[in-house]
Automatic annotation (TrEMBL):
Protein name: NAD-dependent epimerase
A Pfam family matched in the record: Epimerase
Residue ranges of domain NAD-dependent epimerase/dehydratase in the record: 4-230
PANTHER family: BIFUNCTIONAL POLYMYXIN RESISTANCE PROTEIN ARNA, NAD-DEPENDENT EPIMERASE_DEHYDRATASE
Gene3D superfamilies named among the record's database cross-references: NAD(P)-binding Rossmann-like Domain
Entry superkingdom: Bacteria
InterPro entries: Epimerase_deHydtase, Lipid_A_modif_metabolic_enz, NAD(P)-bd_dom_sf
Length: 329
């Protein structure tokens, strides 16, 4: 029977992972770590408060540590996200090694260097990220840290999960606050208000449902696997498919026009997402998920369009969950 510690246990992915572990009979107990204790009481889970930007975790007695904690904001103060994400993650990695607990780390598609337009990349593709935005820069730095960390701890099982963009309906209010800003009300984020769907040349993204990533985490907890695993649902999403889904006209918009508009909104403090993140997303490669299917026995239960549909429904309908990050407005 297994004791699992989950960092970032109250966020988008954390809630899904806690639910998956609650349903797994081979998991005896779960400790959920978060900056704020939630008003949520799963049967096998005990929550504890920790600020990984400042506090040293102690994983004594844990069999597996699942590290999900990540701070997206404030993007205007990257020194703060660096302290939470990079230095906090290093604290988690080293504490797992001291405890002798297997480490499952949620990396990201954002860690990959720009890739080919019409081909998929596997887990061997360079993980240099995109230097113009904090998120891929921090993810890439941690990949380099683990490259040095793993040979120093050869007996420690380390798994790096690299999911595509992770969506689920309960997390939609949080994602709206992170990417659109707290001043944008949910009732304004409605597909029917869109006059058209922009067709940005070369822009296509992969997504995956939080429950499917949680299933991959559960499998990685229980199986003696090591290494990196790409996680994504099919098909990749683009403007043409979104226009068809929403029944809206498709209008070609040059990438530079989108970037200039985003940069203007960013400098006017109208949105919290800087244009560097758009640059990173526009250059992401498409991931091949064959290794996860072969070694984890994993395959997504929710396709990409249904996953995106949950996000849209949660943005202007009922979303949220009784945890501080996922609270509805």
């Amino acid at each position: 029977m297994t004791h699992v510690v989950v960092t970032g246990a109250t966020g988008n992915l954390g809630v899904a992972v806690i639910k998956a572990l609650e349903q797994e009979p081979d998991v005896k107990a779960v400790t959920g770590l978060a900056r704020r204790r939630p008003d949520w009481h799963p049967a096998k889970t005990e929550f504890a408060e920790i600020d990984l930007a400042a506090d040293e975790p102690d994983f004594t007695g844990a069999d597996v540590v699942v590290h999900l904690a990540w701070q997206f904001q404030p993007t205007r103060h990257p020194e703060q996200t660096w302290a939470a994400n990079v230095l906090g993650s290093i604290r988690v990695f080293e504490a797992a090694a001291r405890a002798g607990a297997a480490l499952i780390y949620s990396s990201s598609v954002g860690t990959y260097a720009p890739g080919p337009v019409d081909d998929r990349v596997d887990e061997s593709w360079p993980t240099h990220g995109w230097p113009g935005a904090a998120y891929p820069r921090e993810k890439a730095y941690l990949e380099r840290y683990l490259d040095a960390f793993e040979p120093q701890h050869p007996d420690l099982r380390v798994v790096r999960l690299r999911p595509a963009f992770v969506f689920q309906r309960p997390a939609a209010p949080e994602q709206r606050r992170i990417f659109a800003g707290a001043l944008v009300p949910g009732n304004l984020v409605r597909p029917e208000l869109l006059p058209f769907v922009p067709d940005v040349p070369g822009l296509r993204v992969q997504v995956v449902h939080a429950d499917d990533v949680a299933d991959a985490v559960r499998r990685a907890v229980l199986r003696p696997v090591r290494g990196a695993f790409n996680l994504a649902a099919e098909p990749p999403l683009d403007g043409r498919g979104l226009a068809s889904t929403l029944g809206k006209p498709l209008v070609r918009v040059p990438r530079q026009v989108v970037r200039l508009a985003l940069a203007g909104a960013w400098h006017a403090r109208a949105v919290p997402v800087d244009p560097g993140l758009f640059d990173a997303v526009a250059r992401l490669p498409l991931m091949d998920t064959g290794r996860a299917r072969d070694q984890l026995g994993w395959s997504p239960a929710v396709d990409a369009w249904d996953t995106a549909g949950e996000l849209l429904a949660g943005l202007h309908g009922k979303g949220g969950y009784p945890t501080p990050p996922l609270h509805d407005d």
